[in-house]
Amino acid sequence: MTNEQKQDFTLRITQANRSGLVLIKFEILFVYFDDIHEAFQEDNREKLKAAIRHADAVLKSFQETLDFKYELSAQLYALYDFHRRQLAKIMIKRSLAPLEETRKMLRQTYEAFQKAASQDTSPVLMQNAQQVYAGYTYGKNKLNECYDLKSSISRGFLV
Fold this sequence. Notes:
By secondary structure, the protein is mainly α.
């Protein structure tokens, strides 16, 4: 994952509600899948291990945040556990087949969460984050972002 992608995800996380946060985590996972694929093609074992470790951490965070008072959570837990085992198979079998299977199945899960998120009207989770407005000005090759300095005065911890 590049630093630019990290900055983009960080910005989006500050502006997301609960459903949006789940979608962002899926997108982060897909970036790590791309990193796994790239490291495998380069035959870079250290980079491959790191990418698998990062992807596994995202899947683990999905498991840890499930609310088991809902019946669906047990099924999702088993699904995420299966995908974590698939990631381990990449190193053992030295094949990308488990990754492609996992990517395909999780893409369907992501699309289901997208449909659910479209109906979520809950407020943004990070209420005290700096507001970012995009589109006021344009650079030569990119969109410039502006920050609301008035809202940044009250950011952070209040005692």
